[in-house]
UniProtKB/TrEMBL annotation:
<dbReference type="Pfam" id="PF00440">
    <property type="entry name" value="TetR_N"/>
</dbReference>
<protein>
    <submittedName>
        <fullName>TetR/AcrR family transcriptional regulator</fullName>
    </submittedName>
</protein>
<dbReference type="InterPro" id="IPR050109">
    <property type="entry name" value="HTH-type_TetR-like_transc_reg"/>
</dbReference>
<dbReference type="InterPro" id="IPR009057">
    <property type="entry name" value="Homeodomain-like_sf"/>
</dbReference>
<keyword id="KW-0804">Transcription</keyword>
<dbReference type="InterPro" id="IPR011075">
    <property type="entry name" value="TetR_C"/>
</dbReference>
<feature type="domain" description="HTH tetR-type">
    <location>
        <begin position="12"/>
        <end position="72"/>
    </location>
</feature>
<dbReference type="Pfam" id="PF16859">
    <property type="entry name" value="TetR_C_11"/>
</dbReference>
<feature type="DNA-binding region" description="H-T-H motif">
    <location>
        <begin position="35"/>
        <end position="54"/>
    </location>
</feature>
<keyword id="KW-0805">Transcription regulation</keyword>
<dbReference type="InterPro" id="IPR036271">
    <property type="entry name" value="Tet_transcr_reg_TetR-rel_C_sf"/>
</dbReference>
<keyword id="KW-0238">DNA-binding</keyword>
<dbReference type="InterPro" id="IPR001647">
    <property type="entry name" value="HTH_TetR"/>
</dbReference>
Length: 197
């Protein structure tokens, strides 16, 4: 069967409406009270349409969050690794601390502790690709001589991003720009990067 351009547009409109509806409902009701039925009603699509594209409510919400995170926190390469890390961390901290994305991600993190399939999906679709992108950005900085050649890049990523997840999971206030700058400076000093002038 050949799909027409108009049906593709309709499908994309329905997909975006579904993702937006899922995020809105997370903010209004809390993740636990969101249902596929409610998402379908808000988006103006059928449950059948949702289940054709996603296996569960959590899959819908995970896709919505992942698209937002990837779209707003690219791993830019301006030639200044400290500035690029600060910008990336600030963007991520802002996203996970504001509705609708914060409540959505909090719900996903909570549910994945009881759902092994969801935990694997979160790692495969969100955590691992973002982790690899962060390591790749650090590797480019290493190749440019901004980071020592013996630095353990995966460990550096954990040192930089773990505090944000710690605060998010425990519902502590997210780091502000000053705290993020201090964190980046501390981690870079710890791996032997000279302080910025």
């Amino acid at each position: 069967m050949i799909t027409s351009p108009s049906s593709l547009r309709r499908s994309e409109r329905s997909r975006k409406a579904t993702l937006e509806a899922a995020l809105e409902l997370c903010t209004e009701k809390g993740y636990g009270r969101v249902t596929v039925e409610a998402i379908a009603a808000r988006a103006g699509v059928s449950k059948k349409t949702i289940y054709r594209w996603w296996p569960s409510k959590s899959a819908v919400i995970l896709e919505a969050f992942t698209e937002a995170l990837v779209g707003t926190t690219p791993f830019a390469d301006t030639g200044d690794i400290a500035a690029d890390l600060r910008a990336n961390l600030a963007g991520a901290a802002k996203l996970v601390s504001t509705p609708p994305f914060g409540p959505a991600y909090a719900g996903i993190l909570s549910e994945m502790h009881h759902d092994d399939a969801l935990a694997q999906t979160v790692r495969a679709k969100l955590v691992d690709p973002r982790f690899d992108e962060a390591v790749a950005r650090l590797r480019r900085a290493q190749e440019q001589g901004q980071i020592p050649p013996d630095a353990d890049l995966p460990l550096v990523v954990e040192m930089l991003y773990a505090p944000m997840y710690y605060r998010h999971v425990l519902r502590k206030p997210m780091q502000d720009e000053g705290e993020i700058a201090a964190l980046v400076a501390h981690v870079l000093r710890a791996i032997g990067v000279p302080p910025e002038p």
